[in-house]
Design brief:
By secondary structure, the chain is of the alpha+beta class. It has two domains: 94 residues, Nuclear Transport Factor 2, Chain: A, CATH 3.10.450.70; 141 residues, Glutaredoxin, CATH 3.40.30.10. A five-stranded mixed beta sheet has the order 7-9-8-10-11, covered by helices on one side. Helix 3 links the parallel strand 8 and strand 9. The longest helix is centred in the first third of the chain and has 35 residues. The N and C termini lie far apart (51 Å).
């Protein structure tokens, strides 16, 4: 009976020791890196990885790896060869997951086809050849609402075309004229603060290429995904409801 009563206390003590040990290692890593690499003085999180003795050092959504003393720093990807998973990629995907419901849809061009029951957000640059191919393929899908976030990252000309499309009398028509019919958008002017917010939003979620598709479950697909693949994603989400 005495042993049984002592067991919870022993477990609690062991957990406390583990916690203190982890805190000490985290403090050691933070101190060493801040002193030796000033750019790493603002570390958001230090946590153990599945690899014994290796710690993840997170600054925003940037990941590094360190030993327990902060003597060595690795910038690269951690691969679980048994599970055949890229642990770094999995972690970044989690850190940059998009809350679809929180997207600022007022900063997007809303394009509805059919009933528009299925939802999709897309970040696109008007000078992106892959985006043009994607847009042409996307025309085969029905019953969809596309929230188009103009994302001018390829050239200064991208910013000009995005402004002219956003400020057009019908942004949807101007977009389709340009992407589907190679018609250069006419010069126009208006408040383009939304375009700057789109750039800030894209940097937050590490959107580095166009097109980038965001589905309602927060998953993303970089590149010109074929319409058949988009359809599969949308069907999967519909069946999960």
């Amino acid at each position: 009976m005495k042993t049984t009563k002592l067991l919870p206390s022993l477990l609690a003590a062991a957990a406390l020791l583990c916690s203190l040990g982890a805190s000490a290692q985290e403090a050691a890593i933070r101190k060493a890196l801040a002193e030796r690499i000033p750019q790493l003085s603002q570390i958001d999180e230090v946590s153990a990885t599945p690899m014994k003795g290796l710690y993840e050092v997170r600054i925003g959504t940037d990941l590094f790896y360190s030993d327990a003393q902060g003597n060595f720093l690795i910038q690269g990807e951690l691969i679980d060869t048994q599970a055949r998973r890229n642990l770094t990629e999995d972690r970044i995907n989690k850190l940059t997951a998009v809350d679809f419901a929180a997207l600022p849809l007022k900063d997007a061009i809303t394009i509805v086809r059919g009933k528009g029951e299925r939802k999709l957000a897309v970040f696109e640059d008007p000078n992106c050849g892959y985006c043009k191919r994607f847009e042409k393929d996307l025309q085969s899908l029905d019953n969809i609402t596309v929230y188009l976030f103009l994302y001018p990252i390829l050239s200064p000309d991208s910013a000009e075309k995005s402004r002219n499309i956003w400020c057009a009398k019908s942004p949807e028509d101007a977009w389709h004229d340009h992407m589907l019919r190679d018609k250069t958008p006419a010069a126009a002017s208006c408040d383009t603060a939304a375009l700057q917010r789109n750039l800030t939003l894209g940097r937050k979620y590490k959107i580095t290429g166009t097109p980038t598709l965001i589905f309602t479950d927060g998953s993303r697909a970089p590149g010109a995904l074929p319409a058949k693949e988009v359809q599969k994603h949308l069907d999967r989400l519909a069946s999960a409801k």
